[in-house]
């Protein structure tokens, strides 16, 4: 367990959720989060969803271990059993997480088979029981990430019912993915794109619940969009854009927190990343654990295509080294140096 000092729920203000990077399966692992943290001191980072049973019975260090430099960082849990979720939440809090989040938005077949994720939009009372159990088990914030509804639900009544249930249970914040989930007929990828976004529904929810911190997620890309959402809500959560164009995170601290970014550009971030990669290699890890999260760097810049090709061809195998990553970066840095000359 790390020695990070936890904030109790009573001390957490709505600004804690002002800007965050969404939990994304197969993407926001501990290595991805280190990369993101190097570009923003303030972004709240989320783990991939981990089921409560996996946390309780699995290899905890592998599943939910993280580096202290990732703070603030939240653990997202999946499940529908209040007792198991409470036990997993306690484990997460003991590991040093700053928040426990319950997934009520994932529409994948595997999650549906376990009757959790977006399925829970149909069972607000059960979600309330889950939140109450987790709140009783931990002193850190407990939050819920949800959709505005599923299938043929009316987004007005469905979201209101879920909100009422979790509010009564003491939830600390709600993160709303502002589109429905279709549990039959659409893939998880299609569920992130096809159901129409309805930001106004999230705005109405906040207006009706002014004292409940509410953040919005779904389809948010350009930093120019962030302030408009924050005029009506407490937080903005970005997902795929942060992963596919990670340099966007360099704008978060100056734009939303009035502070300079931790590093000046992607090159400085990569230099700061080297000690973490070196330590990972010393433990028997691979460079690819990090480089697979770097392919979105340098979009549209001279040398970017060669950079990506080098990562794919030279930084995947067990024999890849930091020098291979440096050689990939050089495809872009040489162009930058020539342009500055």
TrEMBL record:
<feature type="binding site">
    <location>
        <begin position="23"/>
        <end position="25"/>
    </location>
    <ligand>
        <name>FMN</name>
    </ligand>
</feature>
<feature type="site" description="Interacts with tRNA; defines subfamily-specific binding signature">
    <location>
        <position position="189"/>
    </location>
</feature>
<dbReference type="Pfam" id="PF01207">
    <property type="entry name" value="Dus"/>
</dbReference>
<feature type="site" description="Interacts with tRNA">
    <location>
        <position position="103"/>
    </location>
</feature>
<keyword id="KW-0820">tRNA-binding</keyword>
<feature type="binding site">
    <location>
        <begin position="217"/>
        <end position="219"/>
    </location>
    <ligand>
        <name>FMN</name>
    </ligand>
</feature>
<comment type="function">
    <text>Catalyzes the synthesis of 5,6-dihydrouridine (D), a modified base found in the D-loop of most tRNAs, via the reduction of the C5-C6 double bond in target uridines. Specifically modifies U20 and U20a in tRNAs.</text>
</comment>
<feature type="domain" description="DUS-like FMN-binding">
    <location>
        <begin position="21"/>
        <end position="325"/>
    </location>
</feature>
<feature type="site" description="Interacts with tRNA">
    <location>
        <position position="192"/>
    </location>
</feature>
<feature type="binding site">
    <location>
        <position position="177"/>
    </location>
    <ligand>
        <name>FMN</name>
    </ligand>
</feature>
<dbReference type="InterPro" id="IPR001269">
    <property type="entry name" value="DUS_fam"/>
</dbReference>
<dbReference type="InterPro" id="IPR004653">
    <property type="entry name" value="DusA"/>
</dbReference>
<keyword id="KW-0288">FMN</keyword>
<keyword id="KW-0819">tRNA processing</keyword>
<feature type="binding site">
    <location>
        <begin position="239"/>
        <end position="240"/>
    </location>
    <ligand>
        <name>FMN</name>
    </ligand>
</feature>
<protein>
    <recommendedName>
        <fullName>tRNA-dihydrouridine(20/20a) synthase</fullName>
        <ecNumber>1.3.1.91</ecNumber>
    </recommendedName>
</protein>
<dbReference type="InterPro" id="IPR035587">
    <property type="entry name" value="DUS-like_FMN-bd"/>
</dbReference>
<keyword id="KW-0694">RNA-binding</keyword>
<feature type="binding site">
    <location>
        <position position="145"/>
    </location>
    <ligand>
        <name>FMN</name>
    </ligand>
</feature>
<dbReference type="InterPro" id="IPR013785">
    <property type="entry name" value="Aldolase_TIM"/>
</dbReference>
<keyword id="KW-0285">Flavoprotein</keyword>
<feature type="site" description="Interacts with tRNA; defines subfamily-specific binding signature">
    <location>
        <position position="308"/>
    </location>
</feature>
<comment type="similarity">
    <text>Belongs to the dus family.</text>
</comment>
<dbReference type="InterPro" id="IPR018517">
    <property type="entry name" value="tRNA_hU_synthase_CS"/>
</dbReference>
<keyword id="KW-0560">Oxidoreductase</keyword>
<comment type="similarity">
    <text>Belongs to the Dus family. DusA subfamily.</text>
</comment>
<feature type="active site" description="Proton donor">
    <location>
        <position position="106"/>
    </location>
</feature>
<feature type="site" description="Interacts with tRNA; defines subfamily-specific binding signature">
    <location>
        <position position="305"/>
    </location>
</feature>
<feature type="binding site">
    <location>
        <position position="76"/>
    </location>
    <ligand>
        <name>FMN</name>
    </ligand>
</feature>
<keyword id="KW-0521">NADP</keyword>
């Amino acid at each position: 367990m790390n020695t990070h000092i936890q904030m109790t729920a009573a001390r957490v203000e709505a600004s804690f959720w002002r800007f965050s990077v969404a939990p994304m399966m197969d993407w926001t692992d501990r290595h991805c989060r280190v990369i993101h943290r190097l570009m923003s001191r303030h972004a709240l980072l989320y783990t991939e969803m981990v089921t409560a049973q996996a946390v309780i019975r699995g290899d905890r260090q592998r599943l939910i271990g993280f580096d202290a430099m990732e703070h603030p960082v939240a653990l997202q849990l999946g499940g529908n059993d209040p007792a198991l979720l409470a036990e997993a939440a306690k484990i997460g809090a003991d590991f040093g997480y700053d928040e426990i989040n319950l997934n009520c938005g994932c529409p994948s077949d595997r999650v549906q088979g376990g009757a959790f994720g977006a399925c829970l939009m149909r069972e607000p009372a059960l979600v309330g029981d889950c939140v109450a159990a987790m709140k009783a088990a931990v002193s850190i914030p407990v939050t819920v990430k949800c959709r505005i509804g599923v299938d043929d639900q009316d987004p007005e009544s469905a979201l209101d019912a879920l909100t009422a249930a979790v509010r009564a249970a003491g939830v600390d914040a709600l993160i709303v993915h502002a589109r429905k989930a279709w549990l039959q007929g659409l893939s998880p990828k299609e569920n992130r794109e096809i159901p129409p976004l309805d930001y106004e529904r999230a705005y109405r929810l906040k207006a009706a619940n002014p004292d409940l911190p509410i953040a919005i997620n779904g389809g948010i890309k350009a930093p120019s969009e962030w302030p408009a959402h924050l005029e009506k809500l407490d937080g903005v959560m970005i997902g795929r854009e942060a992963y596919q164009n990670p340099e966007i995170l360099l704008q978060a601290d100056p734009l939303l927190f009035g502070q300079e970014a931790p590093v000046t550009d992607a090159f400085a971030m990569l230099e700061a990343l080297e000690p973490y990669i070196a330590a990972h290699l010393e433990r028997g890890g691979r460079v690819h654990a990090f480089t697979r999260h770097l392919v979105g760097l340098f979009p549209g810049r001279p040398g970017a295509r060669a950079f990506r090709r080098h990562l794919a061809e030279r930084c995947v195998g067990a024999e890849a080294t930091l020098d291979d990553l440096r050689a990939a970066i050089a495809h872009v840095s040489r162009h930058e140096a020539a342009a500055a000359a």
